Amino acid sequence: QVQLVESGGGLVQAGGSLRLSCAASGRTFSSYAMHWFRQAPGKEREFVAAISWSGTITYYADSVKGRFTISRDNAKNTVYLQMNSLKPEDTAVYYCAANRVVVTTTRVNYWGKGTLVTVSS
Fold first, then answer.
1. Sheet strands side by side (includes 18-24)
2. Cβ-contact 81, 36 below 8 angstroms
3. Would you list the DSSP string of 17-70?
4. Terminus of the chain with fewer CB atoms < 10 Å: N or C?
5. d(CA 2, CA 78)
6. Rounded CA gap, 97 and 1, in Å?
7. Maximum distance among all alpha carbons in the chain?
8. Which of 56, 29, 63, 37 is nearest to 115 (CA)?
9. In angstroms, what CA-CA distances link 102 with 35, 46, 64?
């Protein structure tokens, strides 16, 4: 069992920045591809970003390319999502997820409970 705990969400004005963190349990953290998904009110959960187990390959949804950066620190068992130039449409609950391979669907092995990001105009 892998436990994931997100933090760093909050209220920010459009154009501002936030950094989300996801703390993972277990000695095998470095063996997992890590992901961020988000779910806005009334919408389906969608893929945001992912990073390979090595940290050398990253993936982004078109909607966040150039604004968000995913990174990982395996020594700290932590994944980050740096979010810049935030827009109101980025408002959502952001979920951390772990999987053996990178996926862009919601079919992942482990989920965090989410952290709320609200972007005001």
1. 4-7, 18-24, 78-83, 68-73
2. yes
3. -EEEEEEE-STTGGGSEEEEEEE-TTS--EEEEEE-TTSS-EEE-TTTTTTEEE
4. N
5. 13
6. 13
7. 42
8. 37
9. 8, 14, 17
61-115 per-position pLDDT tens digit: 999 999 999 999 988 999 999 999 999 999 999 999 999 999 999 999 999 999 9
Angle subtended at Cα 64 by Cα 59 and Cα 67, rounded to the nearest 5 degrees: 105
Q: Are 30 and 15 in contact (CB under 8 A)?
A: no
User: Are 3 and 98 in contact, with CB atoms under 8 Å apart?
Assistant: no
Q: Which residues contact 14 (CB under 8 A, 6 or more apart)?
A: 86, 87, 88, 119, 120, 121
Cα torsion 91, 79, 83, 101: sign? negative
Residue pair 27/35 in contact (Cβ under 8 Å)? The answer is no
- Cα 121 to chain centroid distance, Å, stands at 22
